[in-house]
Amino acid sequence: MYASPVKQASSDARGTRAGLIGGLDLGLLAAALGLITVSVYILTMATQDDVPGSPLYYVVRQAIYGVVGVGLMLGASRIDVSRLREHQRAIYAAMIGSILVVLLVGVAARGSRRWIELPFFRFQPSELGKVLLILALSAFIVDRVRRLGDRATTGHIVVLALVPALLVIAEPDLGSGLVYLAITAVLMFVAGTKWTHLAALGGMAAASAVIVLLALPTVGVEVLKPYQVDRLTAFVNPTSDPQEQGYQLQQSITAIGAGQKTGRGPEGATQTRLDFLPEHHTDFVFSVVGEQFGFLGAGLVLSLYALLLWRALRILTSAKNLYGALVAGGVTAMLMFQVFVNIGMTIGIMPITGVPLPLMSYGGSSVLVTFLAIGLLQSVSAQARSTELARTRELSAA
Amino acid sequence: MYLDNRRPTITPQLAFRVAIIGGVALLMFSVIFFRLWYLQVLSGDRYVAEANDNRVRDIKVQAPRGQIVDREGRMLVDNRTALAVKITPAELPKEVAAQNDLYTRLGQVLGRSPRRIRDDVGEQLAAVPFSTATVKQDVDLPVVQYLMENGDDFPGVTVERVFLRRYPYDEVGAHLFGTVGEINEEQLDGKDYRGAEQGDRVGQSGVEATYDRYLRGRNGATRVQVDAMGTLTGSLSAKQPRAGRQLRLGVDLDVQRTAQEALGEGRRGAFVVMDVKDGEVRALGSTPSFDPNLFTKTIKQSDYDRLSDPINGNPLSNRAIQGLYPSGSTFKLITATAGLEGGLIDPSTPVSDPGSLNVGGTVFKNAGDAVNGVLALPQALSVSSDVFFYKLGLEANGEGDGLGIQRWARRLGIGRKSGIDLPGELPGLVPSPKWRAKANREGIGDGRPWSAGDNINLSVGQGDLQTNPLQMAVAYAAVANGGRVVTPHIGKRVEDGDGRVLQEFPAPARRRVDVEPEHRDAILSGLRQAASSPGGTSADVFKDFPIPVAGKTGTAEKGLGRPDQSWYMALAPYPNPRYVVAVTDEAGGFGAETAAPAARRILASLFDVRGEEKKVVKGDSRTF
Question: Is the entire prediction scored with pTM above 0.80?
Answer without folding.
Answer: no
